[in-house]
Amino acid sequence: MGGISSAFASLGAFFGMFDPLCGPVGIFTLLGEGTLVSCGDAGWGDEIAFGVAVTTALALATLPLGLLIGFLVALAGQSEEKSLRLAAGIYTTIFRGLPELLTLFIVYYGMQILIQSVLGFVGYDGRVEINAFLAGMIALAVVNSAYSGEVMLSAFRAIPKGQYEAGDALGLGRGRTMVLVILPQLVRIALPGLVNLWMILLKDTSYVSIIGLSDILRQTGVAAKVSKEAFFFYMIACGLYLALAILSSFALRFIDRWSRRSEASR
């Protein structure tokens, strides 16, 4: 699985006692003994728990990259420079129009072809394989950034231009005005849309199973094929995705309250 997957295995062993599925007080440990999802060699619990860790790590690693690229796209989209606005529009149109799975294939296979061509140009003829986790992260970040860029662009346009002028009048400069005045308002305005994009990103991680990454869907799919219990294991996958969505909703609700703390104090 490559270096990144090996790192996940090491972290999984180190933090095994905190595993909510196969840890000492994990769901599969307590309720799955003697069943198909029991932990250890007798069942598929450990494999599914590893898939949950990979899915969660992929979503968490993709989110900041997608938001950063989306923020830069939004800045370009509201720039006074026409070429930057055009480039931002082309970028969001392409990656919002392409299916996520097609984008994943382009990144995964296209990066291999590109790197292979560059290395071949300098005389290296060995085979190059791109790590599936890295390819999935880049592909999902590109798609997420196209949507988050539009959300942030709308938030930028909702902030009155007088806010920028006020920062200039106080002598803050454009950079400090952006950090101290604009960004806090941008987060508050864009947060509802970004919350929806996080939920979509969490579901879109299932696409990486196509390129061999051991996420929830791939692990439960392998278990379903081997055990001939497809309905059981795919229902397990449904439950895990719903559990991640519910946990995310609690965390996002806290972030939303935090972002609106200034309004509550008025």
Automatic annotation (TrEMBL):
Record-linked Gene3D superfamilies: MetI-like (1.10.3720.10)
Keyword field: Cell inner membrane, Cell membrane, Membrane, Transmembrane, Transmembrane helix, Transport
Membrane topology: Multi-pass membrane protein
One Gene Ontology molecular-function label: transmembrane transporter activity
CDD domains, sorted: TM_PBP2 (cd06261)
Classification via InterPro entries: AA_ABC_transptr_permease_3TM, ABC_transp_permease_HisMQ, MetI-like, MetI-like_sf
GO cellular component, one term: ATP-binding cassette (ABC) transporter complex
Protein origin, superkingdom: Bacteria
Pfam families: BPD_transp_1
Keyword Membrane set for record: yes
Segments traversing the membrane: 48-75, 101-124, 130-156, 177-201, 231-252
Span of domain ABC transmembrane type-1: 52-253
Compartments it resides in: Cell inner membrane; Cell membrane
Protein family: Belongs to the binding-protein-dependent transport system permease family. HisMQ subfamily.
Protein name: Polar amino acid transport system permease protein
Taxonomy of the source species: Bacteria, Pseudomonadati, Pseudomonadota, Alphaproteobacteria, Hyphomicrobiales
